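USER: My hope is that you can spare some time for a protein that puzzles me. I am handing you a single protein, as its sequence and its fold in token form. Walk me, if you will, through where the backbone shape changes along the chain. The protein I mean follows directly.
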Amino acid sequence: MKLQRPFLIIIFFLVFQNLHAQPKWMVNVGGGFYEPTLTGFDSNTEMPKTDFMTSNVLYGFGLSYEFFHNARVGLLNNYSWHSGSTILGTDFSRTIAYRAIVLETYFMFFRRFEMNFTLGPMINGGTIRLDASGTVNEWDTLLSSFGNNSIGIPSSEKMTTTWFGFTSMIGLRFYVFSWLALDVRSGFMNNWYDEKKWKFQGETVTGPKLKLDELPLFTFRLFLTW
């Protein structure tokens, strides 16, 4: 019996740890701030003027899954969006999407607080769109403003690009309830953006000059968990 008692205590401890480490789903929404250099947009008179909200503010959402005690894997999405009218009055929109597949570790303290560390690769994208009612000539003017030669354009649509990046962040989370938490994080993201790899109507074209490497990043999010 004396030998069985320590053995039972160990079994109970392992079972308790296993139950405590059961996976959890978490969804989040929020925003953030960063400071890119959007030279190709800021200095381009063909497009609507940028401001703090369109250049430095991010809107985001995400999903994570706790696959092991103190470890999660997830998806984080942040978007920068700008819309308005071109100099000729055509509806214009620009979206930059930052998408990260992240691994996150964390530890709890003071019962309701969590310190977390996040890192992961990014697959990012950019889209510039002119309203379908815009003229073909205006697309030619916009592309020329980025330094492209005249291109035969069958119709008005959008130009897109994709590039890779990396992000790393440290954060603090406060659990208001077991199912609701507030989270703030700071860190950086590095992007390998190439202005010469945009696509338009199946052709490779030159896009706007953007400095997106070594960007400080600050985010705040609301988490729901179950």
User: Anything to note?
Assistant: The first strand starts at residue 25 and ends at 34. The beta strands are 25-34, 57-68, 71-85, 91-109, 113-130, 158-177, 180-191, 198-200, 203-205, 215-225. The mean pLDDT is 86. Helices lie at 4-20, 39-42, 52-55, 136-145.
